[in-house]
Inverse folding.
C-alpha cells in the first residue's frame, strides 16, 4: 500500500471510530442526566431511624462517611446505607429520626437526609456530553473532508502518460 492510501484508510477508520464512540458517549451521558433529573423530581420523602454511622478510609482522598438507616415504605420495612457529609455524621446518632427519600415502586433505592441530587453528577455528565458533542462534530468534519477528497479524485482527469495524447476536453 502506498503511504497516501494508508493515510486515507487511517483517516476513514479514525473518523468512523471517533464518530461511533462519541455518539455512544453523548447518548449515554444525556440519558444519565435525564435519569438524575427524573429521580430527583419523583423522590418520595418519609421518616427513618438511624441504625449506625461509620466512616470508610478514602485512601489518598478524605474519608467517606455513611449512615445506615431503616424506614417503612409501601407497607414494608427497608434498610439501606447512604453517604453523608462529616457535618451530618456529627449531628446524628443511632436511634435518631431522619428524612429518607426513595423512588416510588423502588423503595430499596433510597437516600438519607437529602433527595436524589442530579447536581452531584450533573456537572460531570454535562461536561462529558459537551466534549462528546465536540468530538462527534469533529468526526463528521473529518468524514466530510474525506468524502470531498474522494469526489475531487473521482472528477480529476489524470495527466497523460509519457508518449500518450491528452484526451479531448
Amino acid at each position: 500500500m502506498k503511504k497516501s492510501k494508508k493515510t486515507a484508510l487511517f483517516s476513514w477508520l479514525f473518523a468512523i471510530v471517533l464518530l461511533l464512540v462519541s455518539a455512544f458517549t453523548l447518548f449515554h451521558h444525556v440519558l444519565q442526566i435525564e435519569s438524575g433529573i427524573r429521580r430527583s423530581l419523583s423522590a418520595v420523602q418519609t421518616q427513618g431511624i438511624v441504625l449506625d454511622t461509620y466512616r470508610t478510609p478514602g485512601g489518598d482522598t478524605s474519608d467517606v462517611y455513611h449512615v445506615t438507616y431503616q424506614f417503612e415504605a409501601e407497607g414494608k420495612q427497608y434498610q439501606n446505607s447512604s453517604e453523608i457529609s462529616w457535618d451530618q455524621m456529627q449531628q446524628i446518632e443511632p436511634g435518631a429520626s431522619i428524612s429518607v427519600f426513595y423512588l416510588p415502586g423502588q423503595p430499596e433505592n433510597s437516600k438519607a437526609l437529602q433527595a436524589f441530587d442530579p447536581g452531584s453528577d450533573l456537572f460531570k455528565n454535562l461536561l462529558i456530553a459537551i466534549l462528546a458533542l465536540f468530538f462527534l462534530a469533529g468526526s463528521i468534519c473529518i468524514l466530510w473532508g474525506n468524502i470531498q477528497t474522494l469526489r475531487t479524485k473521482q472528477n480529476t482527469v489524470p495527466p497523460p502518460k509519457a508518449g500518450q495524447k491528452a484526451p479531448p476536453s
User: Anything to note?
Assistant: Strands lie at 44-56, 64-73, 76-84, 97-103, 106-112. The two ends are 32 Å apart (CA to CA). The helical segments are 3-42, 86-91, 118-155.
